[in-house]
Structures are given as C-alpha cells and as structure tokens.
Specification:
Elements lengths: L7 H26 L22 E3 L6 E3 L3 E2 L5 E5 L2 E10 L3 H14 L3 E7 L2 E8 L2 E9 L4 E9 L11
Length: about 170
C-alpha cells in the first residue's frame, strides 16, 4: 500500500542497539564490582595502627574495632560526619556469643584508649565508654540465630570532669 516498507530492517537495527547497550552496561557494571570500594559509605580498614589482624575490622568509626563476624546492617545505621567529627549509630549483626563479644570489646576498646564507664548486664548488655570529648555506648542483644550490636558514638556536651566520669 502507498510505498510502505517492511519493518524488518528497523527491527534489526533496534535489536543491535539494545544488545550493544546491554553488553556495555554489563561490562561497566562488572568492572565496578571488582574495583576499589573505598568510596562506599562503610569504609573498611584492617586496623588503625597498620596491623593486619584478619579477625577484626574498623567500619565507620576509626577507633572502635569490631570482630569480622559482625556485618553492618545498612538499614539500621546512621553515620554523621562534619568538621572531622564522626557520630551516629552503627548497627551490626552476626553469629557471635554475647559473653565473647563483651570480652572482645573490653579488651579492644582499652587498646584504642577508651575508658569503661559502666557495664550493665541484663537481657541486653550496655557498655558505656568515654574518650576525650566523646562517648561510646555499645548495646548487645542476643537472639535465637544472631547477636545484634549497636554502637552509638557521640560528642560530649558540657563538662565531663564532674560526676561519675571524673
């Protein structure tokens, strides 16, 4: 009818363009996965002092080390950074016994110059640490399958030289 051409050449061209775009997207996507991940929101370092302890890792807080068995729960984590100060909530979960996790933090927080202020053991364990002008609260909850750990890090307002933290 009135000089209409078959649709076949257009279909081949469209198929070629779509295939090329998908192939390039796949190639770029795979190369991004194998590249450097230092730009992620949860930077991982082996340790602050250059040690290469394969059982521990520093996530967002440079002076709070955690066992590698604990993985970040991104949906329950909030980190704030401004003017060189990091604060917020780091949520983790893993298959770790509560008693060994408490022991881990008691040993390693001391190594990073944190001072234990209080340890409260109830069904949930609270560990409160102080360092310079910051405070760190670690909450540990054990469930049937996982142990959940929440690490709050916040600046201290006002004077810390009075009261319990003297």
């Amino acid at each position: 009818m009135f000089g209409m051409k078959p649709a076949e050449p257009c279909t081949r061209t469209t198929f070629f363009v779509i295939t090329t775009i998908l192939s390039l997207s796949l190639f770029v996507g795979c190369s991004t996965l194998s590249g450097d991940k230092s730009g992620s929101s949860h930077n991982q370092q082996l340790s602050a002092g250059g040690d290469s302890d394969p059982t521990t890792i520093y996530y967002d807080f440079d002076d709070v080390v955690v066992p590698r068995e604990l993985k970040v729960r991104r949906d329950a984590t909030f980190i704030f950074e401004a003017a060189g100060l990091k604060a917020g909530l780091l949520s983790l979960k893993g298959r770790v016994e509560t008693t060994s996790l408490i022991e881990f933090f008691e040993i390693n927080m001391k190594k990073d110059n944190w001072r234990l202020v209080s340890l409260i053991k109830t069904p949930s364990t609270l560990m409160i640490y102080h360092k310079d002008s910051r405070i760190c609260v670690i909450e540990i909850d054990e469930d049937t399958y996982y142990t959940y750990t929440r690490i709050w890090l916040a600046p201290v307002t006002g004077s810390m030289s009075s009261g319990l933290l003297k």
